[in-house]
Design brief:
The protein is α+β, with helices and mostly antiparallel strands and 98 residues long. The chain contains 4 helices and 5 strands, in the order βααβββαβα. Strand 3 and strand 4 form a beta hairpin. The C terminus is likely disordered.
Length: 98
């Protein structure tokens, strides 16, 4: 399943560089899924997005989203944008990291 995620100016303003739980993309994903975002957020962003729940769900980030994270974490100016996250089969993801 794919979800369109919109990173807003407010997500960027509230984002914390190098923090996978409070970065602008985590903020946008939390808003999309109607999840409260704080330092104990169930959403974590790295090369993929992890949404914790009864069953953890993993989503693949687009290249544009990964470039955004890299630029934001390095302190470069970033602009609002939209991108898709695509659900990854959890079993496949777990197989890949072992």
């Amino acid at each position: 399943m794919r979800h369109l995620i919109e990173v807003t100016k407010q997500d960027i303003k509230n984002g914390v560089p190098c923090n996978p739980w409070c970065c602008p993309i985590a903020n946008a994903v939390c808003r999309h899924f109607k999840i409260k975002n704080d330092n104990s957020s169930p959403v974590s962003v790295a090369s993929n997005v992890r949404v914790k729940g009864d069953v953890d769900t993993y989503y693949k980030l687009s290249r544009a989203a990964n470039r955004f994270i890299d630029r934001f974490d390095k302190g470069h100016k970033v602009a609002p944008f939209k991108f898709y996250i695509t659900e990854i089969n959890s079993k496949f993801y777990i197989t890949e990291i072992n």
